[in-house]
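**Sequence with structure:**
===
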Amino acid sequence: MKRYLLVAMLAALGQWGCSGAFWGGTAVGALATGGGYEIQAKRQMDRLEEDYKSGKIDRKEYETRKRQIEKGSIIY
């Protein structure tokens, strides 16, 4: 009976360590994904600024697209 309890405890500890690694990996993956979205938002904002400065779009279109980018971004 003692051996059974010892094995069960060791198995539980092993699973706990894997769970921590899982959640750590999940957090890193979420940060990487979020970073990717922010990089894309930055590129879109830069392109939008260039289009406005070059006269390809008017002020109204600029403001509309800017709000759309800001809505999907944490930074802007």
About this structure: The mean pLDDT is 76.
